[in-house]
Amino acid sequence: MTVRQLSIAATVLGVVAVILFVLGRSTLGVVFILLSGGAWALTQYGRGPSGRDDDKP
C-alpha cells in the first residue's frame, strides 16, 4: 500500500471508531482506534525525514 492509501485507511478506520462509540459499541470502537493508530503509524514510517512521500533514497 502507498502512504496515501494508508492515510485514507487510517481516516476511514477513525471515522468507523467514532460511529461505533456513538452507537455504544465501545469495545469495537477501541479495536478500530488501535487499527487506525497502526495505519497512521505506518504512514509516518513510510515517509522520509522531511515528511514527504518522495523522500526515498
Q: What this model shows, in words?
A:
The protein has 57 residues and is an all-alpha fold. The chain is built from two helices and no strands. The protein has helices at residues 3-22, 26-45. Helix 1 runs antiparallel to helix 2 (26-45). The mean pLDDT is 80.
Structural class: mainly alpha
**Series of H and E elements:** HH
Task: Give the DSSP E fraction (strand runs of 2 or more residues).
Answer: under 5%
User: What general form does the structure show?
Assistant: elongated
Q: Kindly report the average pLDDT value.
A: 80
Quick one: how many beta strands?
0
If you compute it from the alpha carbons, what radius of gyration comes out, rounded to the nearest whole angstrom? 13 Å
Number of DSSP helices?
A: 2
Unreliable spans are none
Q: Outline the biggest β-sheet.
A: none
Bin the helical content. Answer: over 70%
Give the termini distance in whole angstroms.
18 Å
Summarize the helices and strands and which ones pair or pack.
Layout: H1 3-22, H2 26-45
Helix pairs in contact: 1-2
